[in-house]
Amino acid sequence: MTDPRRDLPSVTALLASERLRPLVDRTPRAVVVEAIRSAIDDARREPTIVPRDDAAWAALVEAAVTARVQPSLRALFNATGVILHTNLGRAPLADAALTAIRDTAAGYCNLEYDVGRGERGSRYGHCVRLLRELTGAGDAIVVNNCAAALVLALNSLARSRDVLVSRGELIEIGGSFRVPEIMAKSGARLVEVGSTNRTHIGDYAQAITDRAAAIVKVHRSNFAVEGFVAEATLGDLATLAKERQLPLLHDFGSGLMMSLERYGLAGEPTARDTVAAGASLVFMSGDKLLGGPQAGIIVGDPALVTRLRTNPLARAMRVDKLTLAALEATLALYRDPETVMRTVPTLAMLTATHSAIHARAIGIAARMRSRDIAVTVVDTEASVGGGAYPTARIPSAALALTGDAVALESRLRGGRVPVIGRIADGTVLLDLRSVPVGHDEVFADTLIRTLS
Ligand SMILES: *Cc1c(COP(=O)(O)O)cnc(C)c1O
């Protein structure tokens, strides 16, 4: 046997080859040259992969080009059944939000300009009216995320002073967000109150000294506690905070704007509930149940919001125009409670009926079978994810793929548009509840292209 590495083609020969012409024509030359070099290098190192003919060389170079031009951040299908999946980008945006981003960001916009007066304006004014309307709060400010909201508030109101928190709320939200660590970074002194499973209003009352600057209540958004448990309610804390003239800061997280109780999702308060219960400031994420872009929304007492807005740290946490455009458009959808459950994708995915999800799965499975892909439809349980309704299991339906689960799962991840599913009992399941309504056709095409 002769060593196949002896007749490796040259870069020039491959560049000029007829088969690579279309690729060379549509790709920057430097990228193709780089890809050819690396393909030849790979072949030199590993004789078993040396292509046997022109077509095989073209395929190898094409794969090397694709790997280089593919964006690092790209779209994929979330078929995990976890609707607010932090690793997969949390909330998909509403059409209105996408349009708003395009309309304001393709050219210039009045980000910090008062068009009426013809003078400098404030970026912090943009979503305020809507947030007041939707939550009943007196004022609002938007920063980069909920973690930033907490840091900004504590740094503005409690630097070098005491902040009281229940031991049952010293929690980790995920992605290295731990309440005690974030609080320490803000410069506030953490005073732990009560015990892990039980904290009473009297525990807070006892811990208040003249060094106290605030009481913080953290919503236990990603886990539930059961058994011998007790906590002081937001209402109780509001009364105490008022008596002692301390601000009550509530890290609420989810950003739920409308109750989902009539859809079977109970137990999460809305932003309006927390404001009405007497929290002085309420912090929430824009990209959880609210269904908007990543943002940290702070609503509450106007005098406190002003102190946050004028803290130099606010400048380091300020949101950009894309976020504000998307957030304002998303919030505006809530003005119409009749349609918001359809127009905000997160809400639509959460509240779709099981029979609607099942029917979509049946339709996609039929298309796949017509292309000889073995698939059945099974009932599953989806979850909310993203730190809300931690124990809720939502009846759902999934495509169950027949075959080697590990190989199938990896093939789906490796496709041009990756599909992320899960393996349960040795079967790949693709849950339809986390695939936005209206994406079915492209989803089916992607599955057929990847699996045929
Ligand atoms: C999710 C969550 C956070 C963190 O929000 P980000 O917007 O991801 O920074 C903070 N607190 C609570 C209670 C949460 O649920």
Quick recap of the structure?
The chain is α/β, with parallel strands linked by helices. It has 19 helices and 18 strands.
CATH topology-level name of the largest domain: Aspartate Aminotransferase, domain 2
Overall number of domains: 3
Shape summary: globular
Portion in beta strands: 15-25%
Radius of gyration, CA atoms, in whole angstroms: 27 Å
CATH class identity of the largest domain: Alpha Beta
| Unreliable residue runs | none
Describe the sheet with the most strands. Answer: 7 strands, mixed
Discrete helix count: 19
CATH superfamily of the largest domain: Type I PLP-dependent aspartate aminotransferase-like (Major domain)
Structural class: alpha/beta
Write out the distinct hetero groups bound to the structure.
Answer: pyridoxal-5'-phosphate
Helix content: 40-55%
The overall strand count is 18
* Biggest sheet, spatial arrangement of strands: 5-13-12-11-10-6-9
Mean pLDDT, rounded to whole units? Answer: 94
Quaternary structure annotation = single chain
Q: For the terminal residues, how far apart are their CA atoms?
A: 36 Å
CATH architecture of the largest domain: 3-Layer(aba) Sandwich
